[in-house]
Write a structure and sequence with these properties.
Layout lengths: L2 H6 L6 E4 L3 H5 L18 H9 L3 H13 L10 H18 L13 E5 L7 E7 L5 E5 L1 H4 L4 E5 L2 H4 L5 H6 L3 E4 L11 E5 L2 E5 L4 E2 L4 E3 L3 E8 L5 H4 L10 H34 L16 H15 L7 H19 L13 E2 L11 E6 L6 E12 L2 E3 L2 E2 L5 E2 L25 H8 L3 H12 L4 E6 L2 E5 L3 H12 L2 E7 L2 E6 L2 E11 L7 E7 L5 E7 L1 H5 L7 H16 L3 E9 L2 H15 L5 H12 L4 E12 L3 H10 L3 E5 L4 H10 L9 E5 L4 H9 L14 H7 L7 H7 L16 E6 H7 L5 H9 L3 E5 L3 H14 L3 E6 L5 H6 L2 E5 L6 H4 L3 E3 L4 H39 L12 H11 L1 H10 L5 H6 L5 H4 L6 H26 L13 H23 L5 H21 L2 H6 L9 H5 L3 H28 L3 H12 L31 H4 L51 H5 L7
Parallel strand pairs: 13-27, 13-31, 27-30, 28-29, 29-30, 31-32, 32-33
Antiparallel strand pairs: 1-6, 2-11, 3-9, 3-11, 4-5, 4-10, 6-7, 7-8, 12-33, 14-15, 14-26, 16-17, 18-19, 20-21, 21-22, 22-23, 23-24, 24-25, 25-26
Length: 1192
């Protein structure tokens, strides 16, 4: 049974399978683990591939022509004139499609072995592993984009089998579980074995797409295979992307077919008239066949001319287009300037069909984290007990800019410190050494409240595996400041506090999720105190603080605002001392809720809310997610190219805004920045009341006030009236505004804006702004925004991202670009192009994209010109041959014209031509604009090309006709025969189209010279060969033009005719281009003139000095999108091996260890106050803010 048959049967309600029993499992007809990446096998390849190819209109058209050519009464051309190019096209395409990829052959119920670093090829129930407690460490980057390791554990009953092949082969457990589905985070089922039933959840399952890490071996039972795996269930339908030129070509081909039908009809009518008036005089020596009269002759003539004029749609066009696209794709792959050496990642064109679309991008939709930023988090600043740390101050208290020359903090007192960690504020280290109670409590929380796993291969060499980069940065910061997270067991967390090993009993983990936006741990200290430590988004923590923290909260809020001005990600920290009796009672209720089979999550959330109240604020952290190199410059360049960039991010509004300022998308000098941050329709109406738009309250989301500010005369325009009447336009035109504006909207407001009744208003407002930032958006909303712009704007879109949550918008956009960064490879695997850094996007678009578009447009214009000119000659000749469907050229010239004589020159132009160099393309990004406006190839350009071809064909036919009419050679012999005329016409044609190619080409290379001159030489060599005596004697019927070439081309008047026709063909072109450059020069003309004047490369761009910005905008901490694995930490199933006693790795410090402070710690103070004596210290700010001294 095929996979398609399997998918078409009735959906499962429940899956049952038995280990090591294929007969039992086969009765359910489950999918095998076979995954096919093509549609063919050895036997079906030829028929299916041909069937697919002939579904293309052009191929089917040429097949019909071939059939017509096999009818003697219709065809005046030999069959090979169509068979040769058709077979060539079908063969090239078939070779391209002949790819197949099949995975290993396993079936549901089989037990398979996996080893370290192997790819999991099916959804497996983990049975046993090499690690203690039957653990397996996996990397899920291909599933969810996260590179941190996750842990799975087998049931004890199956883990006891170990790697015993005998026991594994005898295992006959039965699994009853959920049917195939696409939920990656959940699995429900049971295992029945030896009369016992065991519960199965997601912690026992290894999903296809994971990679085994740090585990020597493991065994698993196949639950789902092939198309039924959760990975394959999540593979949404991939949209077949086609360029705007492809769509235009389809329209033009249909128009050409219509033109062909009209032309053939005209010639058929001409044949009937000629047969009635003149044909009877020829019947004496050209008798008609029986039953053939004038009307029937016209009918046959129609189909004969369909065959002759078929070159208006040459089949070689499609082959040439594919070769050009393939060549330009290789240029991207080979571009060393898009290679990222640090990660050893080259740029990759993952498709060959969209290159020219890169030169027409109008809208870019970009993720923020990992795309604009590095997604490498650095602990930058913090606020502890109302005091801000992280800035470097001079002697006057002014903040200094941190540079590479700034001295960093010396952590040599801590032998367990991370040498890569950098911090510059000495006062925080001094506070730690002085045993400041609040500072110690701050870092103790960071060392305890997390789900990080530590690995220590060598003494003191710690490696943290964190659920998110933010969490890893916080634990690393605590490590360097003397609170080192060293190891953990299911019941405890071991840390080193200022050189002293301490073990905290881990009683509960209240894990993070997207709703809670916080996590907490409950621990018992070595001295027996119960404490809840909590960290989370500042707004969430503030709602749960004790009233006594109000003053401290105000001060901390000021610091948070300052952190936001620097574009930092923030997190608030708090704690709560717990009563022993209350916690015992709460723990019992927690156990009941955690083992409940119904509404487990809801019950746990209520318990978490209950205990996470009346918290005491400790402070806040500020983490920097640095911009990638060159982001600001790239955005500036793309903006000059009139490309609009919309940022779609899951981060909070304040964070997104400040990144917008950091990369110059938002600027203080903008006329205005419109912010829409309403959470409910009622909130929107409240805002509208101040705007006097009560009659349409919801439209404030779409900001008619914003539109009236940007363009006062647009409030009641025609488009708005149509929208209010429910008449939605198909295309929303661009609207020009005075000034520059920004537009920021959050996810909840965006949900309203994307409703059908408001989407047009939102789109108009956003498109009038220079910058658009959508924050707190879901992956689905990202795709919806892209689809909205595609729906109503006649523009090409590009989406760029680096994570699994960007896949939907990457697939939705015309072009999808994946960044291979810290969030796995799923975005790359779904993309059309990929590279390692956002800055490479400007080279992809401004250089490769623009060149590809320019080359393709030049190719199409020239290709249609040369073929229309070639075909029109047959049309004019029909009026001189009695509309008899005789060809003006010999058959071999017709066959080789597109395949040999003109193929390489036009390919050379299409692969190597460039109007200006890459450096000049960067110097003048405005060169990109014509591509957005479709100026190089459009319906208008096509009509101009057709008219040009018509003129050239008239010159190339009638000038030779007049020159050879009643002409004799030098010896008085007649030269005006059909064969001589055919030779003269085809020679004039080939020379003229080669000259036209030279005029169209801007950049001559050695390859271009070889192709052009070589093709002309090939023509004369082949012509003389075919007209030779030897070919005539060998193949008399195929080569009847004996001696024509040497007789005709030896006459001076023939060469004069060739020269005259060439001059007359190119003279109007030169005149037209000269006048346009003088009267209406394009930006391309101006830049090329400047290049010629300078005769050198452009000057290097000026250095940009980044100005520091101050702002009151808030930023926020961004958690991982996935739920944490706190349950696993406390379950006793994650441990690698028993922790051995280790040295603390600390140099004795602190007063309790005879520490001698230095610097400000030793008593120096700008205010000359003694800071050494503990008894003389003033009450801390925390003691002043709080009603009583807490106990840690």
């Amino acid at each position: 049974m095929t996979n398609d048959q399997m998918l078409s049967r009735v959906p499962e309600e429940q899956r049952k399978l038995r280990a090591n029993d294929r007969e039992f499992n086969r009765s359910f007809r489950y999918a095998t683990n076979s995954i096919k990446t093509s549609k063919y096998n050895l036997f079906t390849f030829l028929p299916l591939n041909l069937f697919e190819q002939f579904q293309r209109i052009a191929n089917a058209y040429f097949l019909i022509l071939l059939v017509l050519q096999l009818i003697p009464d219709i065809s005046s051309l030999s069959w090979f004139t169509t068979v040769v190019p058709l077979v060539l096209v079908l063969s090239v395409t078939a070779a391209k499609d002949a790819i197949d990829d099949i995975w290993m052959d396993v079936q549901v119920g089989d037990i398979i072995k996996l080893e370290n670093n192997q790819f999991v090829t099916a959804d497996l129930l983990l049975l046993s592993s090499s690690e203690p407690l039957n653990l397996v460490y996996i990397e899920t980057a291909e599933l969810d984009g996260e590179t941190n390791l996750k842990v799975k554990q087998a049931l004890t009953v199956t883990g006891d089998m170990g790697d015993s092949i005998k026991d594994l082969a005898a295992f006959n457990g039965e699994v009853c579980c959920e049917p195939p589905n696409n939920r990656l985070d959940r699995f429900t089922g049971t295992l029945t074995f030896t009369g016992q039933k065991y519960a199965l959840d997601n912690e026992r399952i290894l999903l296809r797409g994971c990679t085994i890490r740090n585990t020597d071996w493991c065994f698993g039972l196949v639950i789902f295979g092939g198309q039924e795996t959760k990975l394959m269930q999540n593979c949404g339908k991939t949209i077949f992307k086609r360029t705007s030129i492809d769509h235009l070509m389809n329209v033009l081909v249909l128009c050409i077919f219509g033109f062909l039908a009209i032309s053939c009809s005209i010639l058929a009518i001409g044949n009937r008239i000629w047969e009635q008036q003149e044909g009877s005089t020829f019947t004496a020596f050209l008798p008609r066949q029986d039953g053939v009269n004038a009307p029937f002759s016209a009918f046959l003539t129609f189909w004969s001319y369909v065959i002759i004029l078929n070159t208006v749609v040459p089949i070689s066009l499609y082959v040439s287009v594919e070769i050009i696209r393939l060549g330009n794709s290789y240029y991207i792959d080979w571009d060393r300037k898009m290679y990222h050496a640090r990660s050893d990642t080259p740029a990759e064109a993952r498709t060959t069909t969209l290159n020219e679309e890169l030169g027409q991008i109008k809208y870019i939709f970009s993720d923020k984290t990992g795309t604009l930023t590095q997604n490498i988090m650095v602990f930058n600043k913090c606020s502890i007990n109302g005091k801000c740390y992280g800035d470097v101050l001079d002697y006057t208290g002014q903040r200094l800019e941190i540079t590479e020359q700034t001295d960093s903090v010396d952590f040599s007192f801590n032998q367990l410190a991370d040498p890569k960690f950098m911090f510059y504020d000495q006062s925080l280290v001094e506070a730690v050494k002085l045993e400041n109670t609040e500072v110690h409590a701050f870092f103790r929380l960071l060392a305890l409240c997390h789900t990080v796993m530590a690995e220590e291969k060598n003494e003191g060499d710690l490696l943290y595996q964190a659920q998110s980069p933010d969490e890893g940065a916080l634990v690393t910061a605590a490590r360097n400041f003397g609170f080192v997270f060293r190891s953990r067991t299911p019941e405890s967390v071991s840390i080193v506090e200022m050189g002293v090993q301490r073990c905290y009993q881990l009683l509960a983990i209240l894990d993070f999720n997207n709703v809670r936006k916080r996590m907490s741990v409950i621990v018992r200290s070595p001295d027996g105190k119960l404490t809840l430590y909590c960290k989370g988004a500042d707004t969430i923590i503030y709602e749960r603080l004790h009233l006594s923290c109000s003053k401290l909260m105000e001060v901390t809020t000021e610091h948070l605002n300052e952190f936001a001005g620097d574009g930092l990600r923030t997190l608030a920290l708090a704690y709560k001392n717990l009563d022993e009796e209350y916690f015992r009672e709460w723990k019992e209720r927690h156990h009941e809720a955690s083992t409940s089979l119904e509404d487990r999550e809801e019950k746990l959330d209520l318990l978490y809310e209950e205990i996470e109240k009346d918290l005491m604020l400790l402070g806040a952290t500020a983490i920097e997610d640095k911009l990638q190199d060159g982001v600001a410059h790239t955005i500036e360049q793309l903006a000059k190219a009139d490309i609009k960039i919309w940022v779609l991010t899951g981060d909070k509004q304040e964070t997104a805004e400040n990144i917008g300022y950091s990369c110059n998308m938002l600027r203080e000098e903008m006329n205005d920045i419109f912010i829409v941050a309403a959470n409910t329709p009622e909130g929107v109406r409240e805002k509208l009341s101040s705007r006097h738009f009560l009659e349409h309250p919801i439209t404030f989301l779409l900001s008619r006030h914003a539109r009236s500010t940007m363009k006062p005369d647009s409030a009641e325009d025609e488009l708005l009236c149509k929208m209010l009447q429910g008449d939605s336009p198909k295309v929303v035109p661009d609207e020009s505004v005075t000034g520059e504006y920004g537009f920021v909207i959050n996810g909840q407001s965006l949900a309203y804006a994307l409703e059908p009744t408001m989407e047009l208003e939102f789109l108009r407002t956003a498109c009038m702004c220079k910058t658009v930032i959508c924050c707190r958006v879901t992956p689905l909303q990202k795709a919806q925004v892209v689809e909205l712009v595609k729906k109503y704007k006649k523009a090409v879109t590009l989406a760029i991202g680096d994570g699994a949550n960007d896949v939907s918008m990457i697939k939705a956009a015309h072009i999808g670009v994946g960044i291979s960064g810290q969030e796995g490879m799923q975005a790359v695997l779904s993309s059309d192009y990929s590279f390692a850094q956002f800055r490479f996007l400007q080279r992809l678009l401004l250089v490769h994209g623009r060149w590809s578009y320019l080359r393709m447009c030049n190719f199409l214009r020239y290709f249609f010109y040369k073929n229309f000119t070639f075909t029109f000659m047959h049309f004019w000749y029909a009026f001189f041959c009695g509309f008899s469907a005789q060809t003006v050229y010999d058959e071999w010239f017709i066959t080789l014209y597109n395949l040999v004589y003109t193929a390489l020159p036009v390919l050379g132009m299409s692969l190597f031509d460039q109007d200006v160099s890459d450096s000049w393309s960067f110097e003048y990004p405005q060169l990109y604009v014509p591509g957005q406006l479709n100026l190089y190839f459009s319906k208008t350009a096509f009509m101009k090309c057709a008219l040009h071809s018509c003129y050239s064909s008239l010159v190339l036919f009638f000038i030779p006709y007049g020159a050879i009419y009643d002409t004799v050679k030098n010896d008085g012999k007649d030269i005006a025969d059909y064969q001589s005329f055919a030779l003269l016409v085809q020679t004039c044609l080939l020379v003229a189209v080669c000259i036209q190619l030279g005029l169209d080409m801007s950049y001559w290379t050695a390859v271009n010279h070889v192709f052009v001159w070589g093709s002309l030489a090939m023509y004369f060599i082949v012509t003389f060969t075919m007209h030779s005596n030897g070919m005539y004697l060998t193949f008399t019927s195929s080569f009847p033009h004996i001696g024509t070439a040497r007789n005709s081309l030896s006459q001076p008047n023939v060469w004069l005719t060739i020269l005259l026709t060439s001059i007359l063909c190119v003279l109007p072109v030169l005149t037209h281009r000269f006048l346009l450059i003088q009267l209406q020069p394009t930006v391309n003309d101006k830049v090329r003139l400047k290049v010629r004047q300078m005769k050198a490369a452009p000057p290097p761009p000026p250095r940009r000095i980044r100005m520091r910005r101050t702002s009151s905008r808030r930023s926020a901490y961004a958690f991982s999108h996935a739920q944490g694995y706190g349950d696993l930490v406390t379950s006793g199933r994650f441990l690698h091996r028993q922790v051995k006693p280790r040295s603390t790795g600390f140099t004795p410090t602190g007063r309790t260890l005879n520490f001698s402070p230095a610097g400000r710690s030793a008593g120096y103070s700008p205010t000359a106050q003694n800071q050494n004596s503990k008894g003389d210290l003033e009450p801390t700010a925390l003691q002043m803010y709080r009603t009583k001294q807490p106990s840690y």
